[in-house]
Amino acid sequence: MDIIPAKRLSGEINVPGDKSISHRAIMCGAIADGKTVVSGILDCDDCDYTLRAFKDMGVRIERAENRTTIYGAGPKGLADPGKPINTGNSGTSMRVLSGILAGQDFEATLTGEEGLSKRPMKRIIDPLMLMGSVISSAPGGFPPIRISPGKIKAIDYTLPVPSAQVKSAILFAGLYASGRTTVEEKIRSRDHTERMLKYFGADVKVDGLRVSINGPAKMSARDFGVPGDISSASFLAAGAVLLNNSKIRISRVSVNPTRTGILNIMSRMGARCGAINRVEGFEPYGDIEAESGPITGIDINENEIPGIIDELPIIFVLASLAKGRTVITGADELRVKETDRIASMKQNLDKMGAKMSIDRNRIVIDGVEKLKGARLKSYGDHRTCMSMAMAALCAEGASSIDDVECVNKSFPGFFKLLETIRS
Ligand code: S3P
Q1: DSSP secondary structure of 285-352
Q2: How far is ligand 1, taken at its centre, from the CA of residue 41, in Å?
Q3: Confidence at residue 286, expressed as pLDDT on a 0 to 100 scale
Q4: Distance, CA of 82 to CA of 326 (rounded, Å)
Q5: Which residue is catalytic, options 156, 310, 366, 403?
Q6: SS3 of 12-64
Q7: If I label 193, which of 158, 287, 370, 372 is the partner at 20 to 30 A Cα–Cα?
């Protein structure tokens, strides 16, 4: 796809539903008792894999326009799919689903596409096996993984790496244990699972960095709406900050405090952006506004990383066009996403004349006046693709990006929406 630089971004828009909340909505709805109706579930490749997995396990799920109706089968009511469950390229589907499968009475195999097959699963296999699940995998703890029935017991587990996916797998498995399962994090990761399990009636307690669930738990169907995805909104907000005379408003976006790290980072860089019209609820949402203005490089430390893990690629773009130096420490988890995002972003930004260097666990970016148009590659990674599309909009001279269909993983319609706000 060719990308011509933009003069400005302006307008009021919505972005599609939050991916993390959508996955969890399908999962909780499927194992609750009763009928759950959810509006705004993200219609994307990744969530489709979660949806199909539950359909294959006998759960009736109907989609009509924006509404998804899930006829919950109850915690133990899933049926043996009789074939491997394909989770495509979706790490969240494979990792979080494993927790639910650990509590079922049938053997299940989870497979994925080539990209997912290279992503580490030992991080969920280890705690689930401590809970009594019987799991085998390809050598080194990679997919496919096979989960056989086991008697699930409660554990108290400290996450070696902050990860919402791992925390969620353990909490879902904890639904099937008797007694209190506790997960402790060193740094808080997104908390959508604990919020939603509680909303569906499970006995979940949060005490600082410790989250616990008391099992065996029952869940009751609940209706709700999924707010827009702040990770998707962040590409557009960053574009508005970087392009002169721009101002955009993105309505009804999740402003869950474990996800708003990007707004804090942009504000610390001096950007004019923030959330207004905040509505509280089991998942808070609000409108995000961003407008153009100068930005300055900052230091970002490892405690901030879990809260901006999916926004780091667009932060690299912001830092490349900020005045001065940005230093990011402790972002190694980025190397095990859909691509090694430190490498895929650096390869692209280098081509545009950015100054990004890597020194052990430190990423150093010295801002430049202008990026120049270049032939860019998505490497099949949705967030690398959208970050580089924004860089290309802000560059001098035209760019091209290959394989842009990967944006369907989280943000179908990204390029169409961009056309409506750019000039
Ligand atoms: C997610 C958690 C994060 C994030 C991913 C979605 C989730 O991954 O990068 O896009 O929905 O729980 P980790 O848990 O591996 O940090």
Answers
A1: EEEEEEE----B--EE-GGGGGGGTTTHHHHHHHHHTSBSEEEEES-GGGGGSSS-HHHHHHHHHHHT
A2: 17
A3: 98
A4: 51
A5: 310
A6: EEECCECHHHHHHHHHHHHHCEEEEEEECCCCCHHHHHHHHHHHHCCCEEEEE
A7: 287
Considering the four listed CATH numbers 3.65.10.10, 3.40.190.150, 3.40.640.10, 3.40.50.1000, the one that applies to the domain covering 19-207 is 3.65.10.10
Residue bearing the CA closest to ligand 1, atom 13 = 163
Mean pLDDT of 246-257: 98
Query: How close is the Cα of 423 to the center of ligand 1, in Å?
Result: 33
Domain 2-16+227-421 architecture: Alpha-beta prism (3.65)
pTM of the model: 0.98
Task: Tell me how far apart the alpha carbons of residues 87 and 2 are, in angstroms, rounded to a whole number.
Answer: 31
Site to substitute for ligand 1 among 119, 190, 194, most atoms within 8 A of C-beta = 190
CA of 403 to the centre of ligand 1 (A): 23
pLDDT tens per residue across span 69-85? 999 999 999 999 999 99
- The pLDDT tens digits for 90-120 are 999 999 999 999 999 999 999 999 999 999 9
Helices 230-242 & 312-320 angle (0-180, nearest 10): 10
Interatomic CA distance for residues 173 and 136, integer angstroms: 17
Residue with tokens 């004019």, as numbered in its chain: 272
Closest-lying ligand 1 atom to the alpha carbon of residue 23: 11
Question: Alpha-carbon distance 232 to 154, whole Å?
Answer: 36
User: How many other CB atoms are found less than 10 A from the CB of residue 388?
Assistant: 32
Same fold, 2-16+227-421 and 19-207: yes
Structural domain boundaries in the chain: 2-16+227-421, 19-207
Which pLDDT tens digit goes with each residue over 338-367? 999 999 999 999 999 999 999 989 999 999
Segment 252-264 mean pLDDT: 98
- The rounded radius of gyration (Å) of the Cα atoms in the chain is 21
Asked if residue 316 lies in contact with residue 387, where contact means CB atoms within 8 angstroms, the answer is yes
Q: Which residues line ligand 1 (CB under 6 A)?
A: 20, 23, 92, 163-165, 168, 189-190, 309-310, 333
Cα of 95 to ligand 1 centre, how many Å?
A: 10
Respond yes or no: is residue 310 known to be catalytic.
yes
Ligand 1 atom at shortest distance from the alpha carbon of 167:
14
Nearest atom in ligand 1 to 162's CA: 16
* Residue 178 CB neighbours (<10 A): 12
First-last CA distance in the chain: 18
